[in-house]
């Protein structure tokens, strides 16, 4: 078997390990998907009537707001899953399993690859559940098959990027507690973007940050694809941010992992 073949085989083994952890401890998945669903219900049923009236939609109200906020909740789901990835990586690094792996003839890259792919599968399952709940309470996307595929690709790209970044967060942390706190900034960014209210309603300084931070173009792209609105340059920015974050996260994670293993 070639070196690439060994790496792929070992990565598949590590992926199975992470999937078994996900099945064995379903409470983690429930927690990761539970927070976005609770926020969705809170914003729609508690604040939706008032916030929906300020969107400028003639229909207004709660129905208009759930269509607006659902893409932001999807990005909140991705950010929440990133926190779980950081915790999982930090747990491996602090509980001695990596030292055990060092004594085995396995490809070093497979350890991180298993975490990344496993986390992406977990995140995509969570996204499906969140979309299902959103549809049940009134979310009505107008997208056709092509738009759904495009929106899925954009979400998968951004999930891949944040997953590598969260792997780096887990590696740089000296404890599981620290790893659980570092990704919190990712969970806050949808609130400081266009996820919950239009950026036009924000003060000038905050509005500038909200429009140029990485979550806003992804949210606007998903919103435009699913609800038939304009996408404009948001798609290009979403792809650019995803590629940049993924590259930075991968290089940072690789450097940290090699340094700690060595």
TrEMBL record:
Location of this chain's protein in the cell: Cell membrane; Membrane
Ranges annotated as spanning the membrane: 25-48, 68-90, 111-137, 149-172, 179-197, 235-253
The keyword Cell division belongs to this UniProt entry's keyword annotation: no
Domain ABC transmembrane type-2 residues, every copy: 27-260
Domain of life: Bacteria
Membrane topology type: Multi-pass membrane protein
Coiled-coil regions, chain positions: none
Residues annotated as signal peptide: none
Annotated keywords: Antibiotic resistance, Cell membrane, Membrane, Transmembrane, Transmembrane helix, Transport
Pfam families: ABC2_membrane
Family recorded in the similarity comment: Belongs to the ABC-2 integral membrane protein family.
Name the record gives this protein: Transport permease protein
Organism, as annotated: Rhodococcus pseudokoreensis
């Amino acid at each position: 078997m070639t070196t690439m073949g060994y790496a792929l085989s070992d990565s598949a083994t590590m992926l199975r390990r992470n999937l078994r952890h996900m099945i064995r401890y379903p409470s983690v998945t429930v927690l990761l998907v539970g927070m976005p669903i609770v926020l969705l219900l809170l914003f729609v049923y508690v604040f939706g009537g008032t916030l929906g009236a300020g969107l400028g939609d003639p229909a207004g109200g709660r129905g208009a707001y759930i269509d607006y906020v659902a893409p932001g909740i999807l990005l909140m789901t991705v950010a929440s899953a990133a926190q779980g990835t950081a915790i999982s990586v930090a747990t491996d690094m602090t509980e001695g399993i990596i030292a055990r792996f060092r004594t085995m003839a396995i490809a070093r890259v497979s350890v991180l690859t298993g975490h990344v792919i496993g986390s992406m599968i977990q995140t995509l399952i969570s996204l499906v559940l969140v979309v299902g709940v959103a549809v049940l309470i009134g979310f009505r996307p107008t997208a056709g098959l092509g738009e759904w595929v495009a929106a899925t690709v954009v979400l998968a790209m951004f999930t891949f990027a944040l997953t590598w970044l969260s792997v780096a967060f887990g590696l740089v942390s000296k404890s599981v507690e620290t790893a659980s706190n570092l990704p919190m900034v990712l969970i806050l960014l949808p609130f400081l973007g266009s996820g919950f209210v239009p950026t036009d309603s924000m003060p000038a300084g905050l509005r500038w940050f909200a429009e140029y931070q990485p979550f806003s173009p992804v949210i606007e792209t998903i919103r435009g694809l699913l609800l038939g609105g304009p996408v404009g340059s948001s798609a290009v920015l979403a792809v650019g941010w995803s590629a940049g974050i993924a590259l930075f996260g991968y290089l940072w994670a690789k450097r940290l992992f090699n340094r700690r293993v060595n």
